[in-house]
Amino acid sequence: MNIREAIENDFDKIWPIFHEIVSAGETYAYPRNTTKEEALQIWLKAPRKTFVFEENNDILGTYYIKTNQAGPGSHVCNCGYMVSVKARGRGLATSMCKHSQEVAKEHGYKAMQFNFVASSNKGAVRLWTKLGFETVGNLPKAFNHPTKGYVDALVMYKWL
Fold it and tell me: Which of the residues 3, 8, 72, 141 has the least number of beta carbons within 10 Å of its own beta carbon?
């Protein structure tokens, strides 16, 4: 498995993963009809860095890292992670989160915060907790899940 910084040409391979996850509406608070052009801005252009995890020239997972808040909060970063359906259950999310924490430290971040984790995303909540993140906030019924209705969104945080 190769981990490397993404380049704009990678987006054609990232897009199917992004589209599949976002159009399902179960984990990210992006509009389900986010266009490819909007996704390129969200995932590749706006963040500080974006990485891809690839195998045999196929992108299996991706994550971005960005500063969570400006000014006095700029020592805290935020990340988003996506794994292709065909690569789930192989530990990619764990590897990406661990990798992102190392990248965060290299860039001078002192903490990592996940702003809006759907409480219904049990796998992510379990994994982030296992990797040392604490739930520091609960936003009641803030995430409108397509089948479960309004569920809580969690703020998760880890001092690096």
Answer: 72
